């Protein structure tokens, strides 16, 4: 690392230089010296906040930002910049409710600061406040109508809020301005069912024929092409494009399947009957919280939409709040674990589950209040890992496990390009092995956790929407409301999941058995599932 020359006559630039060089202790001392010289320095306080975030000390970071806010007029651009900075720190700390509240207290409607608006839009997006995200992005777009990144973000916000026609127009604009914006092509293809008269297949093929395409382009364009070809029932060509996209995606991911399988086995071993039967916490903790979980692409978003069509029920989206708070608590009690995931699982059994549940419930209730609801949903599918922990920390929370035909489930995952999650998705054998481990863990939880636990089959739900919806609402302790049958019209909230376009439609059955168009191509997956005891007919 190169040495940083310290100019003692100008401490702030020196502190910034140390920070950028990763020398946090020197940066901290230099920034603190700035405050000793100038007690009203706003920039130094913001830098100190960034230094403490880098050190993992979020309370200290927030302390300096709150000091800065107290020194600024509440209607000034400087105040808004610090307030948005504070919201970002709260987000980094995992306090999504606090981050959204910090932004809610800022009136950015008159600001001309594009960076402020886009930062607010980004934070609101990660807080699943898509209506507010769209408002800020649209405002930024009105100030910078030719900025391609703002156009892209505005398109994504409109997609989340269900304005798919505007989203498509915006993606078209983004592509026209930056033809190498590969993700825009993929997102545009997902917005609607393509037709013979109106599709982008020729354009996508032309782009893919270019020599020397970067890996990211090959991923995005092949997934886009596969989707559009499937819409036109050109199944062999669709799967060929999908395989190319998956291979390119898998080649760019560092992922150890065996580690994930070992973690799931360790969870089942650690959380056995003796531990689950032991003393928990206040039996009322978790009231008003619904978990929807399972594998991705199994209908969790559909269930979320059905429930949020009932007045008073709101959704937090797919937060990592439970996993993050669990991680914080284990790290506090067992600071030497580091990256050892198996030790993490074993030591998690000794934490204060009552404290974990209280912290989680406090955050979710704050989000529920912000969204105007009394009951709130956490629909992060990966919470299936924590069913036993959820039961011990939040005994009164209700858990809904959404299941789907294994081959349909795995094919739906395989053909979905996720941003960062689910790295097991892009290789058929890895996907099959992960699915078997998931099923084994859920079988384990089902034997141990029966109270406030509900298994819902996707195929039954779409086959008898009213009957299954009535049973679901009864389990949740909710009165019957026929608006849940019109979920695609009832909810004004957004979703940024892979199902963002589909949930704007009524229930449809066309996805049932879709994998059968690819019986031959999906043989590697089917073989893994059969070896694990799941009957699959590929004849």
TrEMBL record:
Pfam families: Sulfotransfer_3 (PF13469), TPR_19 (PF14559). One of its GO terms (molecular function) is protein-tyrosine sulfotransferase activity. Gene3D superfamilies: P-loop containing nucleotide triphosphate hydrolases, Tetratricopeptide repeat domain. Keywords: TPR repeat, Transferase. TPR repeats lie at residues 42-75, 114-147, 148-181. This is Uncharacterized protein. It comes from Microbulbifer thermotolerans. The lineage of its organism: Bacteria, Pseudomonadati, Pseudomonadota, Gammaproteobacteria, Cellvibrionales.
């Amino acid at each position: 690392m190169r040495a940083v020359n310290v100019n003692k006559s100008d401490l702030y630039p020196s502190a910034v230089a140390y920070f950028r060089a990763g020398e946090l202790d020197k940066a901290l001392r230099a920034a603190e010296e700035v405050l000793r010289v100038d007690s009203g320095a706003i920039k130094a306080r913001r830098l100190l906040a960034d230094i403490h975030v880098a050190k993992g000390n979020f309370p200290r970071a927030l302390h300096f930002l709150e000091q800065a806010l107290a020194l600024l007029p509440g209607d000034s651009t400087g105040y808004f910049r610090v307030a948005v900075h504070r919201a970002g720190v709260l987000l980094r700390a995992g306090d999504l409710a606090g981050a959204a509240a910090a932004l809610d207290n800022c009136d950015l409607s008159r600001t001309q600061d594009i960076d402020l608006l886009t930062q607010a839009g980004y934070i609101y997006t990660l807080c699943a406040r898509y209506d507010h995200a769209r408002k800020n992005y649209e405002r930024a777009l009105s100030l910078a109508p030719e900025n391609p990144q703002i156009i892209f973000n505005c398109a994504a916000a409109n997609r989340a809020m269900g304005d798919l026609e505007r989203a498509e127009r915006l993606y078209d604009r983004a592509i026209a301005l930056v033809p190498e914006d590969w993700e825009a092509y993929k997102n545009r293809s997902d917005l609607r069912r393509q037709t013979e008269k109106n599709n982008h297949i020729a354009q996508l093929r032309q782009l893919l024929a270019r020599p020397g395409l970067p890996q990211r382009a090959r991923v995005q364009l092949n997934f886009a092409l596969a989707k559009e070809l499937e819409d036109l029932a050109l199944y062999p060509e669709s799967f060929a494009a999908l395989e190319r996209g998956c291979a390119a995606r898998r080649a760019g991911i560092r992922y150890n399947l065996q580690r994930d399988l070992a973690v799931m086995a360790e969870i089942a071993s650690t959380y056995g009957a003796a531990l689950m039967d032991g003393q928990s916490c206040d039996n009322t903790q978790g009231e008003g919280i619904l978990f929807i979980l399972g594998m991705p692409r199994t209908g969790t978003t559909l269930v979320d939409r059905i429930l949020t069509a009932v007045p008073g029920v709101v959704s937090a989206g797919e937060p990592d709040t439970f996993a993050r708070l669990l991680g914080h608590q284990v790290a506090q009690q067992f600071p030497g674990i580091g990256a050892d995931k198996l030790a993490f699982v074993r030591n998690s059994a000794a934490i204060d589950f009552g404290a974990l549940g209280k912290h989680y419930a406090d955050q979710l209730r704050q989000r529920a209040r912000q969204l105007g609801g009394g009951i709130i949903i956490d629909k992060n599918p990966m919470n299936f890992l924590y069913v036993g922990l959820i039961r011990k920390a939040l005994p009164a929370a209700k858990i809904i496990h959404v299941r789907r035909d294994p081959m349909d489930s795995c094919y739906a995952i395989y053909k979905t390009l996720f941003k960062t999650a689910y790295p097991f998705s892009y290789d058929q054998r890895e996907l099959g092995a992960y699915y078997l481990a998931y099923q084994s863990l859920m079988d384990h939880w089902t034997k141990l956790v029966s109270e406030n636990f509900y298994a819902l089959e996707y195929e039954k739900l779409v086959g008898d929407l009213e009957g299954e919806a009535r049973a679901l609402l009864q389990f949740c302790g909710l009165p019957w409301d026929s608006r849940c049958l019109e979920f695609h019209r009832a909810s004004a909230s957004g979703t940024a999941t892979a199902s963002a376009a589909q949930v704007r439609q009524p229930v449809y059955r066309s996805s049932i058995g879709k994998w059968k168009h690819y019986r031959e191509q999906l043989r590697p997956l089917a073989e893994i599932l059969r070896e694990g005891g799941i009957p699959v007919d590929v004849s």
